[in-house]
Amino acid sequence: MDAMARVEGALTTALARMTGPGCPPRLAEAARHAVFPGGSRLRPRLCLAVAAACGDDAPELADATAAAIELLHCASLVHDDMPCFDNADLRRGRASVHKAYGEPLALLVGDALIVLAFEQLALAGAAHPERIAPLLLMVGGSVGAPTGIIAGQAWECEEQINLSEYHQQKTGALFAAATMAGAAAAGADREAWRALGERLGEAYQVLDDIRDVAAKPEEIGKPTGQDRANDRPSAALQLGLAGALRRLDELSAAAVAAIPDCPGREALQTLIHQQVSSLLPKKLRRAA
């Protein structure tokens, strides 16, 4: 089974548990809307690619870990789109959760997906008790404070922001969790994979900043111009489009260089190059 099929299968299993008998029908519908259909699923695919490079001796735990990473990402998107943050009407080419189901349900869906992510890990980890505690702490740290997604989002409420630190927390933290957790799920040394996730996460945030100024909404499935409209830190606005593209190249090269020596190194390199190229606005792909 390929990585995407494994991810979708694990997410389907998790959502079936959350939206089972007794769940309020509109909450269940809104949760499915938040998770399916997904985007590139880059974070969980990266998690599985690292697990494969490390032997993947516990595929059920790797699948649950990848799904947990994606559920946390989806939760962050639901909250990020709400009026108190980006007030975005579109996500993945259709109505964002708060536009489709209202703000109260959007808030609850985001919360429920966060809880579901850790339930998913706990259930799969029962067969590997020696691995579950480090996994829970690692994934939890990537979404909380002082340096997880929540902290990254909170930097937008500060008067002065370090752009690199903001990017590392808001985006890089979950990428680092994806690479490190993939290794930990396979019983390998997670620290060896930290640098890859951090560099790739920062590269992805720069890429997102570029898309916000250079892509069309219909091309990326969400509103553009959000960084300027919301006065958010942005590599594209701070460095200019050409400078942001150079920064993207630097970070992508640093991510590739950070891949530890392993049997799956070439496959990971290919995954990184393909994803960066495919996510750039079409008019910039030749120049990147």
Structure in a nutshell:
By secondary structure, this protein is mainly α.
Notes on the protein architecture:
There is one protein chain. With 288 residues, the protein is mainly α. The protein has one domain: Farnesyl Diphosphate Synthase, CATH 1.10.600.10. The chain is built from 14 helices and two strands, in the order ααααββαααααααααα. Strands 1-2 form a two-stranded antiparallel sheet. Strand 1 (90-91) and strand 2 form a beta hairpin. 46% of the residues are buried. The model has no long low-confidence stretch (mean pLDDT 93).
What are the salient characteristics of this protein?
single chain; 288 residues; mainly alpha; Farnesyl Diphosphate Synthase; 14 helices; 2 strands
List the helices and strands and how they pair.
Layout: H1 3-18, H2 25-35, H3 42-53, H4 59-81, E1 90-91, E2 94-95, H5 97-101, H6 103-125, H7 129-143, H8 149-154, H9 163-185, H10 194-214, H11 217-220, H12 226-229, H13 235-257, H14 265-279
Antiparallel strand pairs: 1-2
CATH topology: Farnesyl Diphosphate Synthase
Strand elements, count: 2
CATH class category: Mainly Alpha
Broad structural category: mainly alpha
How far is the first residue's CA from the last residue's CA?
32 Å
Radius of gyration: 18 Å
